[in-house]
Design brief:
Shape: globular
Distance between the termini: 23 Å
Order of helices and strands: EHEHHHEHEHHEH
Strand order of the largest sheet: 2-3-1-4-5
Helix content: 40-55%
Number of domains: 1
Largest sheet: 5 strands, parallel
CATH class: Alpha Beta
CATH superfamily: P-loop containing nucleotide triphosphate hydrolases
CATH architecture: 3-Layer(aba) Sandwich
Structural class: alpha/beta
Number of strands: 5
Strand content: 5-15%
Oligomer: single chain
Number of helices: 8
Radius of gyration: 15 Å
């Protein structure tokens, strides 16, 4: 298990829920560093879709786990890839972080999933199946939940920041 910083706010949730967008703005508002673990993997190893194609999902998950463990060691806002929570070590690490679950309704994400960057999602139905399979785990890990379907991102960020400050975590 990683020694998780008590000042860490981890954003989890399904693909296309807005973890990166919300995370960047939340970190700026709270004056904390921001780390997107998918971006770390891409910077170090290349596009995620190519990693999946060339080496398979288990290899990607190992790279992802390394990026997540490193990011959670430092104070800040950390955006985790949608499947990062599947790793038992990551689940254990998240017990020591403040975890925000970002949810989104299927109707709101159709445009967000058409860019081909998500190898496990080929269409809206595959997204729905993926979310259904992870939903209980997301809920179990979350300390706070915010839906990003239709509300203004700045409103969502302000609410999360208020929660984090009230809880003494920012």
């Amino acid at each position: 298990m990683t020694a998780v910083s008590r000042e860490t706010i981890a954003l989890i949730g399904p693909p296309a829920a807005g973890k990166s967008r919300v995370g960047k703005r939340l970190a700026k508002l709270l004056d904390l560093p921001f780390v997107d673990t998918d971006a770390v993997v891409v910077a170090q190893h290349g596009p995620i879709a190519e990693i999946f194609t060339a080496h398979g999902e288990p290899h990607f998950r190992a790279l992802e786990r390394t990026a997540v463990a490193e990011a959670l060691r430092k104070p800040g806002v950390v955006s985790l890839g949608g499947g990062a929570v599947l790793d038992p070590a990551t689940q254990a690490d998240l017990a020591d972080a403040r975890v925000v679950l970002l949810t989104v309704q299927a109707e709101a994400i159709a445009k967000r999933i058409t860019n081909g960057k998500r190898p496990l999602i080929t269409d809206l139905e595959s997204w729905k199946r993926l979310v259904a399979s992870r939903s209980d785990l997301y809920q179990k890990l979350a300390d706070y939940t915010a839906d990003t379907s239709s509300r203004q991102i700045d409103t969502i960020v302000a609410e999360i920041a208020q929660w984090a400050q009230k809880e003494g975590h920012a």
